[in-house]
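Figure 3 (text version): structure tokens given as input.
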């Protein structure tokens, strides 16, 4: 409501929550993108439940360029990663069955699960200068109705990647309990530095469904194309069942499937701009916070940064004060289910001038004595 009032009053709000790359000032190769969508083949409708072979082969090449072998036959196209979750909840759960999800993480999971009558149970990520999966808590969350565990790699908003030892444990854990791993890699291309300790692919000991799509890989959320890549024991049967689900909806538009090979070719330049922006904003934020009461939690990748602010106010009070008095929009940590106070989440995708000024106002607000 306060934000709506600000906008009605035409206040210049510094939005540090911007997550839409098409509104963040990046330069897109317009001609190449439009040409890709103008292929006359898009005028013919040949429904393919798993997606057109040419599009699935393009996804396979995307993985091959990263040294990961994913056959086109193991890929199912979806209209988005959100739809991929919906398909997988349909595939793996009956009403009342459970899926384990990390905490903190993006709140969309709850809505997607409710629509499929699936119950979410959280397992915590712990921070000690770096983020780790709490495996004791993960083990304790399993019940007779647990069907899958979600891994977001890197996590949103913590930016933490799954490490090789965690990957091995997760695979053994899933196999031991008969669970599938839902591996969300939408931000996988946005690491801030190389790290050999990070997981590359999950072992074949467990059934794994990896999700990604154009929204983050190419900064093109409006194109509405994602995918599921299946592997591990029983994945052939699962792919057949996913094909039945996909055939019920046939939601992926033909034009974007035909354009996909060329859109993925365009994606490298867009990713480069996003990487440069997010790295520069993160460096600016860390330098700005140096010596202040605000600290920046370590992050390895993604589009977000987490600020730890003094507990002299609640997260909601900090967010409302920043918006009401400083015209700065941030997200409170409880939006992502942080277990304790007080954290604020900002988007590193934000235009640099806006980001720098917004960060300055945050630090000034924190430094002011409370009346």
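Below: residues designed for each position.
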């Amino acid at each position: 409501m306060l934000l709506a009032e600000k906008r009605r009053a035409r206040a210049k709000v510094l939005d540090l929550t911007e997550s839409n790359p098409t509104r963040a000032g990046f330069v897109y190769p317009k001609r190449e993108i439009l040409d890709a969508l103008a292929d006359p083949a898009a005028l013919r409708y040949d429904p393919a439940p798993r997606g057109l072979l040419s599009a699935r082969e393009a996804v396979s090449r995307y993985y091959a360029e990263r040294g990961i072998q994913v056959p086109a036959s193991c890929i199912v196209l979806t209209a988005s990663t959100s739809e991929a979750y919906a398909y997988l909840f349909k595939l793996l759960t009956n009403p009342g069955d459970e899926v384990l999800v990390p905490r903190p993480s993006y709140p969309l999971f709850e809505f997607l699960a409710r629509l499929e009558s699936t119950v979410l149970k959280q397992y915590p990520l712990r921070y000690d200068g770096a983020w780790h999966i709490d495996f004791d808590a993960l083990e304790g969350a399993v019940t007779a109705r647990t069907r899958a565990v979600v891994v977001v790699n890197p996590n949103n908003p913590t930016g933490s990647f799954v490490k090789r030892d965690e990957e091995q444990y997760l695979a053994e854990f899933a196999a031991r309990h008969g669970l599938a791993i839902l591996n969300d890699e939408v931000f996988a291309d946005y690491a801030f530095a190389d790290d050999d300790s990070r997981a590359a692919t999950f072992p074949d000991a467990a059934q794994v469904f990896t999700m990604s799509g154009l929204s983050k890989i190419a900064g093109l959320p409006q194109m509405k194309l994602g995918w599921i890549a299946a592997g591990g024991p029983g994945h052939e049967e699962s792919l057949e069942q996913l094909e039945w689900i996909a055939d019920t909806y046939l939601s992926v538009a033909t034009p974007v499937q035909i354009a996909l090979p060329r859109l993925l070719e365009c994606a490298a330049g867009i990713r480069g701009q996003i990487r440069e922006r997010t790295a520069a904003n993160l460096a600016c934020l860390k330098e700005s916070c140096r010596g202040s009461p605000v600290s920046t939690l370590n992050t390895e990748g993604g589009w977000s940064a987490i600020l730890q602010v003094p507990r002299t106010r609640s997260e909601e009070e900090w967010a409302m004060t920043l918006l009401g008095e400083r015209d700065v929009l941030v997200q409170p940590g409880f939006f992502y289910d942080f277990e304790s106070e007080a954290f604020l989440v900002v988007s590193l995708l934000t235009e640099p001038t806006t980001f720098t000024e917004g960060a300055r106002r945050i630090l000034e607000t924190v430094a002011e004595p409370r009346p």
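The chain has a mean pLDDT of 95.
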